[in-house]
Design goal:
By secondary structure, the chain is mainly α. It is built from 16 helices and no strands. The protein has helices at about 5-35, 40-75, 80-110, 120-135, 135-150, 160-180, 190-215, 215-220, 230-260, 265-300, 310-335, 335-340, 355-380, 380-405, 410-415, 415-435.
């Protein structure tokens, strides 16, 4: 369970996460592609629905990151018996949070968002999607807990199978249910929600069977639910609370970003959703390596090998650029071909090429920025991460608001806000790591 920051070690943990990220992003992009061919209202709505779901997921993501950091630390310390206790107690917290958030989306959200959107049709479509997909939170929470366990012990290959299942089921059911093929009803955006919910349930079954098959119930004590552990819950809460707030700020930032663009009309919002889908693909390898950085920094601290953190970061940045560069080249060389996936006649995607160049620049800057940012998270200094995200959100939304609603500039200028956000993340994270106050933390 101890980790060595070799290129092979970094890649061995990261590449399953990258494959997992590909499958998860394929799900999001598939929804966008299919709905782009179904209707412009549904295309405009899916981005906002996804942003709202991400807001609900913020508390869950914070708890998952806390679980992952503590598991990584216990793995580095060689305390395998404690890993199951952390996982099980974290699962208690996750299920309570997921149930509460599901009820909020089902019963409180429709009234809260009734006057929020400029378009009544978009509001109806968003609600149609979330009334179904809200139930995915329970399964998604457990799946993320499993993922945190596998990343924390540096055994991530099982996530490849899980996300292939996720993507395959989602794509198949999108095709069948959005358009109503093979005699099934054409459900539009509700079909996309059913597809995604079914895929999460299937992944839950797959990962649960893997835990049982590999006998992690015995070796790590997973799924052995005992009494409530107040001390461990407080530790997880102390680490997770700032991360949950950080995730909330980040997802609220994206929701506000799309809400600003929604004020410019459904056409502009639809184009922004397309650009975001391509941007999400560019971020896949960066997100995969960031998961490795977060857990393995915690692992190295558990081994008391702090001097190797810098080596881990440098090698991760090189590997990340190696994977990202072909994607950037393809985006910059063939932007029209990518956009043709979303529109056969080019009407919806006209004028979005320049935005792709901007998000490509943002992704390039994201490599060192996300590496440093995730390293700070891996130290357990989650309060610093929260402060950083507040600074990033202020910068991103300030630029987006000014360019869109004050200056009235085209979409590509609004996307420059992402470049500003990554620049802020890089500056504050590197500065904080150099100051070194995180060395005094105990997890």
């Amino acid at each position: 369970m101890t980790f060595r920051p070799s290129y092979r070690g970094i890649w061995g943990v990261s590449y399953p996460l990258i494959v997992a990220g590909i499958s998860e992003t394929v799900v999001e992009v598939t929804d966008t592609v299919f709905l782009a061919h179904y209707g412009i209202t549904e295309l405009a709505a899916i981005g906002l629905a996804g942003a709202i779901y991400s807001l609900a997921l913020a508390l869950i993501l914070g708890l998952v990151d806390g679980i992952q950091i503590v598991i990584g630390r216990r793995a580095g310390e060689g305390r395998a018996g404690q890993i199951g206790r952390v996982f099980n107690q974290g699962l208690y917290l996750l299920l309570v949070a997921a149930l509460a958030l599901t009820l909020i989306i089902k019963f409180a959200l429709p009234g809260l968002t009734a006057d929020l959107f400029a378009s009544a049709d978009v509001h109806v479509a968003v609600d149609d999607y979330l009334q179904i997909y809200a139930f995915a939170l329970l399964f998604h929470a457990v799946n993320l807990a499993y993922s945190a366990f596998y990343v924390g012990i540096a055994r991530t290959r099982v996530l490849i199978g899980a996300t292939v299942i996720l993507a395959a089921i989602n794509i198949l059911l999108d095709y069948l249910l959005i358009f109503g093929h093979f005699g099934l009803p054409a459900l539009g955006i509700r079909g996309a929600a059913i597809a995604s919910l079914t895929a999460e349930v299937a992944v839950f079954g797959y990962l649960t069977l893997d835990v049982v098959r590999r006998r992690y119930v015995g070796s790590f004590g997973l799924l052995r639910f005992g009494r409530w552990d107040g001390d461990l819950s407080r530790l997880l809460a102390r680490i997770s609370a700032p991360v949950s707030l950080e995730a909330l700020v980040e997802t609220a930032r994206w929701f506000a970003f799309f809400l600003i663009i929604e004020q410019l009309g459904e056409d502009v919002l639809a184009k922004a959703n397309i650009v975001f889908s391509i941007y999400a693909v560019l971020l896949i390898p960066i997100d995969g390596f960031s998961e490795t950085i977060c857990s393995m920094v915690s692992n190295l601290i558990g081994q008391r090998r702090l001097p190797q953190i810098g080596l881990l970061m440098r090698r991760t940045i090189l590997l990340a650029y190696g994977v990202l560069t072909p994607l950037l080249v393809a985006t910059l060389a063939f932007p029209e071909a990518l956009l043709d996936l979303f529109s056969e006649d080019g009407v919806i995607t006209s004028g979005t090429t320049a935005s792709l160049f901007v998000v490509a620049a943002a992704a390039s800057l994201a490599v060192p920025a996300e590496t440093a940012y995730s390293a700070v998270a891996g130290t357990g200094d989650t309060r610093a991460i929260l402060v950083f995200q507040l600074l990033i959100a202020t910068g991103v939304l300030g630029v987006a608001w000014y360019t869109a609603l004050v200056l009235g500039l085209p979409l590509e200028y609004i996307w420059l806000s992402e470049v500003a956000g990554w620049a802020i993340a890089l500056m504050v994270s590197v500065t904080w790591l150099k100051i070194g106050l995180w060395r005094q933390l105990r997890v």
